[in-house]
TrEMBL record:
It comes from Oryza nivara (Indian wild rice). The keyword Isomerase applies. This is Uncharacterized protein. GO terms for molecular function: (3S)-3-hydroxyacyl-CoA dehydrogenase (NAD+) activity; 3-hydroxybutyryl-CoA epimerase activity; delta(3)-delta(2)-enoyl-CoA isomerase activity; enoyl-CoA hydratase activity; NAD+ binding. It is found in: Peroxisome. Residues 278-456 form the 3-hydroxyacyl-CoA dehydrogenase NAD binding domain.
Length: 689
């Protein structure tokens, strides 16, 4: 029996055409996969190859994966070794674009292979589908994740559950293929398309990262639940259609690689997380005590350090109060309370830190203090101990500047209240070891947080993305809008609190420290309001002093302060501001746009700089870290409801009158010009990761 194979031909224009040959339908046998890996590797190594076109011999792309190959799979191969290690890590994440040239059939694994490519060109007669459920199995090469992202969830469910293929023209209508041409033009069109991707004339989409065709989470659950009901009506005894729906749901809710997840230069190294048994925390304030609570709730031993007995007692009391609130709500028994609380110990020095596997610094945003703490930690902690900081804004290079162990330093940024908020932002510098990141990802899993790994910069991903939100809020107040009306508009939009109520909660000291960091790093995009400084001079520090933008009663209930206008007038006077008569007349929708479009603009910077991996990470972060309304799908998903061009035009118009705070970033300009989706964008350079 002839062995299947692939062949490669490099054209004069720099396109490598790889052809699958395994008669009669070019099935993907293990021989074909091995040959395909070799040819892809060669094409990626060769400097004369700019792009790749993948096709099948004799007018057939591929009829699917050879199911007889399951019996021949090497026993030592881990699950997903084809869908992850080859198709995703080598083909989809390759530095050179691939285009699938489809004629005849692209069924099952054949279509899954085509969907991994960055674009697809087909003939009108080509058949594309995933018929695996007819065989009692589910698609195993990523089709459950990529198909909904290309054709939308309802159409994907129809194709999967009914094993219904599409012809080329219909596939083009639903977005599964990008162009339909004659068989004679197929290869030349695919090659031209691939070169246009290289030249930035066509979008470079990684289908696994796209979210623009997916509905909001609540709508997703409704669609999938309806699909389950229909599947059970059709075949009550069959389980694999329900398993298929479960897999689709897991990918949409937890991310397409929730079992397939890869972080560049980390999870592809074969590292395994080390056992984390004991965590030490420096600082028992609101954040430190919240982090301690999150850890002991999940059975980790915790050492809490403070500078004196008074502060230590206060920190331990906060942890105790956090646990007692769970008992009062019936979420914890008294016995559980005693067991969890016994995992916490308090100290006034670093002696016991020698036993810690991880240290998390959670003191105030004071760079010199953090530098001293990290220098001390290097002396006392063992050489494999992870040294993490909970800083919300300060560049990690500065924090670790006075140490010689920057490979062990990372950010572990929790969100307040730390024991309740579901997000953990893990920050790595170019010196942070991959093992440290793997270990922190495992800690996130242990304490039931959703992690995102981001690059190092002032503010990191979440706070930096939203720093323009606060800047614009102060700008609008100085130019005539009411503090309380702005907060009302933002809460009506769906966020839990407006920028001024949030400033009170966080405290003005933190706000001043953060503003200083942003002003140093991004001066051209900062609005220099004096309002908080003026209020601090009057001993107004926020909720902790019961006076900030709001007044607070004994139960911490907020109410507007009738004296607020005098501070605002002083701020306006110091800045010599002449009020813009147009701004106080803004509608509520215009206020939302003016405050959140700069957030979208900053998100584009984060993607372009490689601080964040993909737009969907920022969507998750905006919901879990900043309370962006989940039913709106995240900030980038929401932005797509307007379109990049509309957002760009609005920002450009505002920047003409109000300066750099609204100046649209070039990356946004490119997306707008090309008519691309914001939610589908993944960064190209990944320079900070």
């Amino acid at each position: 029996m002839a062995r299947g194979s692939t062949s490669v031909e490099v054209r004069r224009d720099g396109v490598a055409v790889i052809t699958v040959s395994n008669p009669p339908v070019n099935a993907l046998s293990l021989d074909v996969i091995a040959s395909l890996q070799r040819d892809y590797g060669e094409a990626l190594r060769r400097s004369d190859v700019k792009a790749i076109v993948l096709t099948g011999a004799k007018g057939r792309f591929s009829g699917g994966f050879d199911i007889n190959a399951f019996d021949k799979k090497p026993k030592n191969e881990k699950p997903g070794y084809l869908s992850i290690d080859f198709l995703t890590d080598i083909v989809e994440d390759a530095p050179k674009p691939s285009v699938a040239a489809i004629d005849g059939v692209a069924l099952g694994g054949g279509l899954e292979l085509a969907m991994v490519c960055h674009a697809r060109v087909s003939t009108s007669s080509a058949q594309l589908g995933l018929p695996e459920l007819q065989l009692g199995i589910i698609p195993g090469l990523g089709g459950t994740q990529r198909l909904p992202r290309l054709v939308g969830l309802p159409k994907a469910l129809e194709m999967l559950l009914m094993s219904k293929p599409l012809k080329g023209v219909e596939a083009h209508k639903f977005g599964l293929v990008d162009a339909v041409v004659s068989a004679d033009e197929l290869i030349s069109t695919a090659c031209s398309w691939a070169l246009e991707i290289v030249e930035d004339k066509r979008p470079w989409f990684r289908s696994l990262h796209r979210t623009d065709r997916l509905p909001a989470l609540e709508e997703t659950k409704k669609i999938l639940n309806f699909a389950r009901v229909q599947a059970q009506k059709q075949s009550a005894s069959l389980q694999h259609p329900l398993v298929c729906i479960d897999v689709i749901e897991e990918g949409i809710i937890s991310g397409p690689r929730a079992g397939l997840m890869k972080i560049p230069n980390i999870s592809n190294l074969g590292l395994t997380p080390r056992r984390i048994h004991k965590v030490a925390i420096v600082g028992g304030g609101l954040m430190g005590s919240g982090i301690a609570t999150a850890l002991i709730l999940n059975n980790l031993l915790v050492i809490l350090k403070e500078v004196n007995e008074q502060f230590l007692d206060a920190g331990i009391s906060r942890v105790k109060a956090n646990l007692q609130s769970l008992v009062k709500r019936g979420q914890m028994t008294k016995e559980d309370y005693e067991n969890k609380f016994s995992l916490l110990s308090g100290v006034l020095d670093y002696e016991q830190f020698r036993e810690a596997d991880v240290v998390i610094e959670a003191v105030i945003e004071d760079l010199s203090l953090k530098q001293k703490i990290f220098a001390d930690l290097e002396k006392y902690c063992h050489s494999n101990c992870i040294l993490a900081t909970n800083t919300s804004t300060i560049d990690l290079h500065l924090i670790g500047q006075k140490t010689s162990c920057q490979d062990r330093i990372a950010g572990a940024h929790f969100f307040s209240p730390a024991h309740a908020m579901p997000l953990l932002e893990i920050i790595r510098t170019h010196r942070t070891s991959s093992q440290v990141v793997i270990d922190l990802l495992n800690v996130a899993k242990q304490i039931r947080k959703t992690p995102i790994v981001v690059g190092n910069c002032t503010g990191f991903a979440v706070n930096r993305m939203f720093f323009p939100f606060t800047q614009v809020a102060y700008f609008l107040v100085d130019y005539g809008l009411d503090v309380y009306h702005i907060d009302h508009v933002i809460t009506k939009f769906g966020m839990p609190m407006g920028p001024f109520r949030l400033a009170d909660l966080v405290g003005f000291g933190v706000a001043i420290a953060s503003r200083k960091q942003y002003l140093q790093s991004y001066p051209e995009r900062c609005y220099k309001s004096m309002l908080i400084q003026i209020m601090l001079e009057e001993n107004r520090t926020g909720e902790s002093s019961r006076k900030g933008f709001y007044l607070y009663d004994d139960k911490r209930k907020a109410s507007p302060d009738p004296e607020m206008n005098k501070y605002i007038e002083k701020s306006r006077s110091m800045a010599s501001i002449v009020q813009d008569p147009k701004l106080p007349k803004l509608t509520d929708d215009e206020i939302v746009e003016m405050m959140l479009f700069p957030v979208v603009n900053e998100a584009c910077r984060l993607l372009d700089e490689g601080v964040a991996m993909k737009a969907s990470d920022l969507d998750v972060a905006s919901i879990m870290g900043r309370g962006f309304p989940s039913y709106r799908g995240g900030v980038m998903f929401w932005a797509d409801s307007f379109g990049a061009k509309y957002i760009y035009d609005r920002l450009k118009d505002w920047s003409k009158y109000h300066g750099g705070i609204f100046e649209p970033y070039e990356y946004l300009s490119t997306i707008a010009r090309q008519g691309l989706s914001l939610a589908a964008m993944a960064d190209g350079a990944m320079s900070r990761l």
